[in-house]
Design brief:
Length: 337
């Protein structure tokens, strides 16, 4: 793995809103107008990239962008408008369960004949499709667990202790070589991908950006702490079976041992995390703040809604024999389109 701690480059814009945000970050132009934000598709490339750029200032930032932009009042005002557009669409479009118990029960049911991305990759996916999947997911996995860390100061007691314990595992349990972001970079190396942080931002679809933006949206707002815990629960509860299928896909297609190890590790770790999250993180949170149950439910269901959108995009492209990326990967692997 190449240890690249440099700030990533700003990507090309995808429309007038992201173009204005990019220009502002470069001190080269004004921020977007309210009517431009109002006219942008809530889940589209332009708005999702603009929001991702705003959020990334709270993580690593971008090369050549003043670190003080993180708390620039005018940029925060625009970020708020982008968030309102995104969150309003989610609240209108997400099918929400009647209760938290119903939402959790749905997560715990594994369909006999699944049709999702991990099922497809296990049964018929090719190596080039697995490489594309890794490139799309790298936007999150190269900072795995970081967005969820925003909730730690907003919890206390049993929920805080349990959440910190799971995060500690995600960050390698004190061992740098076992940090999950590091393990994912090793997976990318086995697949012949560039491990530089943010390398595939320009290539990633709007649907992939939205799944990462959701975590930052929930994490950076204390009022949405319940939704972030719901997101975390959805990820941890569904991770183990999905990771098993992806590990099988990587073995079947001949990916290297590091690629297989990343998902093998998640099969074991997340099976334990599921119990901790359900009984202690969720249980502890709701014992202290039972009024957050509806927010937790929304967090679970919004996660599923955006993941389903991403899955539909990937499967539609792959079944049509085309790349799911905006800028396809170099064709190092035989059989790539």
């Amino acid at each position: 793995m190449r240890h690249d701690h440099r700030e990533p480059e700003l990507p090309p814009a995808r429309g007038p809103v992201s173009a204005a945000v990019t220009a502002y970050l470069r001190d080269a132009g004004p921020l977007p107008r309210a009517e431009e934000i109002g006219g942008a598709a809530a889940y589209g490339d332009d708005l999702q990239l603009a929001l991702y750029l705003c959020y990334e200032l709270h993580y690593r930032g971008f090369a050549g962008v003043d670190a003080r932009r993180e708390w620039d009042p005018e940029l925060l005002r625009i970020r708020s408008a982008l968030e309102h557009r995104f969150l309003s669409a989610l609240r209108a479009d997400t099918p929400v369960h009647d209760s938290l118990d119903d939402a959790l029960a749905a997560l715990l049911v594994e369909p006999v004949r699944g049709t999702g991305v991990s099922h497809y990759l296990r049964d018929e996916g090719t190596l080039w499709q697995l490489r594309e999947y890794a490139a799309q997911r790298s936007l999150y996995h190269l900072k795995e667990a970081d967005p969820h860390a925003w909730v730690l100061p907003r919890l206390w007691g049993r929920a805080k202790a349990a959440m910190a314990a799971v995060e500690f595992d995600e960050w390698g349990g004190g061992r740098a070589e076992r940090v999950h972001a590091r393990l994912f970079a090793d997976l990318m190396t086995d697949l012949g991908l560039d491990t530089a942080y943010g390398r595939y931002l320009d290539a990633a679809s709007a649907e992939a950006l939205a799944t990462v933006n959701l975590m930052s949206l929930f994490g950076l707002h204390r009022e949405l702490r319940g939704a972030l815990v719901g997101h975390f629960a959805a990820v941890e509860i569904t991770s183990s079976p999905g990771s098993r299928r992806l590990a099988e896909a990587l073995r079947r297609t001949g990916a290297g041992p590091a690629a297989q190890f990343f998902y093998d590790e998640h099969v074991e770790a997340d099976a334990v995390h599921e119990q901790v999250v359900r009984h202690d993180v969720l249980g502890g949170l709701l014992a202290e703040e039972p009024h957050l149950a509806a927010d937790v439910t929304f967090g679970i269901d919004a996660t599923g809604y955006l993941e389903d959108r991403l899955g539909a995009r990937l499967l539609a492209d792959w079944r049509a024999g085309r790349s799911s990326l905006r800028t396809p990967l170099a064709q190092e692997v035989t059989g790539a389109p």
